[in-house]
Amino acid sequence: MSWKKANKRKFNPSKTELLMARFMDRGRKMTYSVRTSYTLIPNQKYRRSYRRSSKFSSTLDADSPFLSSLGNFKALPLEIFQMVLEYLPVKDISMLSMVSKTISSRLINYISTPTGNRRLLLQDFHNPELSGCRKGSSILEHYRTLGLLLKRCTLLLPTKDRLKYIHKILSEISCFKLSGCSDPLHCSGLQCYGVFLQTLTAGWDELECHRVYNFLCELSNLPRRVQTVVSSKPGKYCMYVLGSARKLELRIRIFCRSVLLNHWIHRSDSAFWLTRILKSWPMVNQARLLYIIFGPASTLDGHVVWQKMTEGPTDETSLKGLADAIKLLYDTEAKEWTADDVISLVDELAVVPREWLLENSARLLILCGNNICFTFMASKAVNGRAIELAKLVVFLALVCEKDLYCMDWAVKMMQKVCKVFSTPGERNNFLQSVENAFAHIIMDALQSVISGEHDEEDSSFLNLFHLVNAQANFHKEILYLTMSNTV
Fold first, then answer.
1. Distance (Å, rounded) from C-alpha 337 to C-alpha 316?
2. Of 207, 95, 97, 198, residue with least CA distance to 156
3. Do 256 and 264 touch, CB atoms closer than 8 A?
4. SS3 per residue for 192-221
5. What is the pLDDT of residues 110-163, one digit of tens each?
6. Looking at the whole model, is its pTM more than 0.90?
7. Would you give the distance in Å from CA 302 to the centre of its chain?
8. Which among 175, 315, 193 has a CA at the least distance from the CA of 261?
């Protein structure tokens, strides 16, 4: 009987024995003894193992979460891993950074090493084409890709920590600083910094971008430097860190355009950054700062030409930057600007550094477009400045004549402004003022010719010629408009 019981237990293990066998199936080496004289060993096919039969097997602790997130790279020593990175394009490294948090951490460490610095932080900013870049791509494209790499590597960090880390990486590049380069006019450093920041901050919300702007202001001391140039006489030499106000104006102009404004695709982004630059200042300082950033500059040394608008007629090229900036602020996407704000800015701009020639003001308004031009003129009509408005109409006609715009545009603009006047008497007085303005301006030009005030290009006589033709063509369009309405 005892033999039968032993034999029965041999083929029917107890519940305890089955439970222990299950633990062994999970990979734990456990043995136990039954009441008989042998040990139950589970079937080998149920045994699990964490060992990999791969050529990448390593003696490292395979159970470590840190190493398991490295994948097959866990078999490589850190030095070899960094050597592999030397053969990858920066764009591919940025893709690699998204594989896992551990890979991203290793890439951050690589960027901070001397080898990574030499590889990634190219500094040949005074050479338009970088010979070390693959396929002849420019250094600008390199820093655009580097911005994407650091954007992905720091994805999980708070904005403040991201900015601190990136500043730590880029702090040794002197050409990325507002006053770091001795020849900023011929240096592409700030342009590279601009495309880097544009790539880094693309898609960030306005609150984060506010933090970026404040961070840049702290690093560059931009507000204090702007205060220096907007509160002193234009171009006046002063004792300052950079030697003179003219040099400081140039550096502010290049920094604002190259770093903050030039590289955005969407107008709303450009309007946001331009608003950050201007809005913290009073209107008079906004106008001067706008002129520093977008006004005419010398083709020789890049310095702002302050007398360009006051000494003689200028061309469209000198005014295009200002006109584009004004249109950007007037756009509906510039949420922090009202139409009155923009018109007041244009009005203030026309006296920087002194009152402009009316021809230059008229040319700027034409470049700004119909909406801004009409709003500006209507503002003068509403505020009782009919004589100023009449002179402006004359110079709008003169610019149309000189620059070959259609004269009927000037006539229709005047006709639209006439509707702003509240009474027929005010409207008639305005029209009379337009005729008087034509007469006075032509007489002044004739007097200049008669007095013999000629220059090498004989511009006085040429100006009189354009004025007479402008008056004739202006009245011709009025006659066409009048006759077409009566027929």
1. 25
2. 97
3. no
4. HHHHHHHHHHCCCCHHHHHHHHHHHHHHHC
5. 898 898 999 999 988 987 554 444 443 589 999 999 999 999 999 888 999 999
6. no
7. 21
8. 193
**In whole angstroms, what is the distance from residue 290 CA to residue 273 CA?**
13
DSSP state of 281: S
Q: What is the pLDDT of residues 174-228, one digit of tens each?
A: 999 999 998 999 999 999 999 999 999 999 999 999 999 999 999 999 999 999 9
Q: Tokens at residue 241, please?
A: 């860190």
Tell whether the torsion through CA atoms of 24, 29, 32 and 36 is positive or negative. positive
> Cβ distance 123 to 176 under 8 Å?
no
| CB proximity list for 352: less than 8 A, separation 6 or greater | 234, 287, 288, 291, 306, 309
Question: Is it the case that residue 43 has pLDDT exceeding 60?
Answer: no
Q: Would the pLDDT of 9 be above 90?
A: no
> Which parts of 363-465 are beta strand (E)?
none
Which residue carries 């402006």 as its tokens? 392
- Distance, in Å, from the CA atom of 308 to the CA atom of 323, rounded to the nearest integer, reads 15
Residues 6+ apart with CB under 8 A from 414: 393, 434
What's at 297, amino acid-wise? A
**Residues, the chain:** 487
Q: What percent of the chain has pLDDT over 70?
A: 79
CA distance 262 to 163: 21
